[in-house]
Amino acid sequence: MIQITEAHIDSLAPNSSAIKNAQGLVKKNKYIQLNRSENGELLFGECAGSGSSNYVCSADFIVAEKPVLRCSCPSRQLPCKHTLGLLYAYAGGAAFTEAPVPEDIISKRGKAEKREEKKAKQGEEGAAPKPKKVNKSALKKKLQAQLEGLDLLEKFTESLIRSGLATMDNKKLLTLNEHVKQLGNYYLPEAQTQLRRLALLFMHDEHEQIYTHAMDRLTRIHAFIRKGRAHLNERLADPDLKLDHESTMEEWLGHAWQLAELKELGLITEQAELIQLSFLSFDDAARLEYVDAGFWLETATGDIHETISYRPHKAAKHMREEDTFFEMAQVKTLYRYPGEMNRRIRFEEMKSRPLAEEDFQAAAAHARRSYADVIKQVKSQLKNPLADTSPVVLLHVQNTLQTDRGEYVITDESGNQIVLGDVLVSLGYESLELLPLLRPELLRDSAMLVMFSHDLDSGCLMAQPLSIIKDKEIVRLLF
């Protein structure tokens, strides 16, 4: 018999509306028929719809890590509310009658098995992997175009600095946005994003309050131009035009890493277990996308990874929306992207199980105990203008104190302190106000997941608490 929890079903849903609608179908007893196969690997049934005929839905767990959800309804959402409701009914203890596997499912399974056999045959041990075909001539043209785009970006930003940020007006903002569009012809999406971020500063804030942040943006753009140009020239000089898998430069230059590439580079871990410690969802106006970001602890290594899902504004309603996940994710293959702290990860096949007491203990044991070492590592990353400016670390908290100025600080066993602050306030996420509401024992001898940030106005390094691990619970301050 398969084990399905509501948390796992939630993780399969495309968005919160699908979850609500699916649970509504169960509550309203819309399922006319509920069946399961003899071995329990297949759930199937019929759900009353708006038409005269019922919708036939099924959930096939013949590959437990990658269930196949099917339905005869015309919905463009995958999976639809009918298949999700089928799973919620099963998880909720509804009675499923044993029945033979339908012929159409047997046929579809057969086709799927043939596809998997073909893949397995192609990837057999000892079989030489087929080299990825690269049109070097076309690639060189693209790299040359990117160099031209960087030259254009440099000329524009130098002109902007020479004229002075204080002269920024609506006319210059219009010119800035025209350059954003123009860079789209040079395969430089990140350059477009950075210029858009600069424009948004002047569009929504008083000029006197944003000069420091504007200069920080221009510093990042300058570093991108300098490092990007050197990298592109290196690739053009290389007969094989090899990608750089040591840094995030390829992503800055618009390369979308394929899973096959990451596997070929050895950036994978087989049979990994992950605990999600925090989750954020926000609208990134500069990218013109919604962003779903999850921070996960890899239990074997203690590394804090990040999953990132982008949903373009124009297509968001047709795309799956990520959500908070409360169980242990048992991942068949974990793919790691190039980077430093909090490397981006991705996985496609997953099973889940409820967290056990030993899981909480193992997670807390990975908390970093020396703040001096952590701060040194964080500052080292922040020195790189192209690195992530908000690294996340799991810290052991000896105590949480409030200073005479009303600031909250956490201390390690040596008495070193880190100032807490709401670094995500611009995204609408604040957590400091929750600290007085927590049980006092949660703020002593516990593990705290924090996001660091360098406050440009004060010049101070501070951290925002995201979640706390204590004994048998994870208290999420943001999710």
From TrEMBL:
Keywords: Metal-binding, Zinc, Zinc-finger. InterPro entries: Znf_SWIM. Residues 107-138 are annotated as: Disordered. Residues 61-91 form the SWIM-type domain. GO terms for molecular function: zinc ion binding. This is SWIM zinc finger family protein. The keyword Protein transport does not apply. Residues 113-124 have a biased composition (Basic and acidic residues).
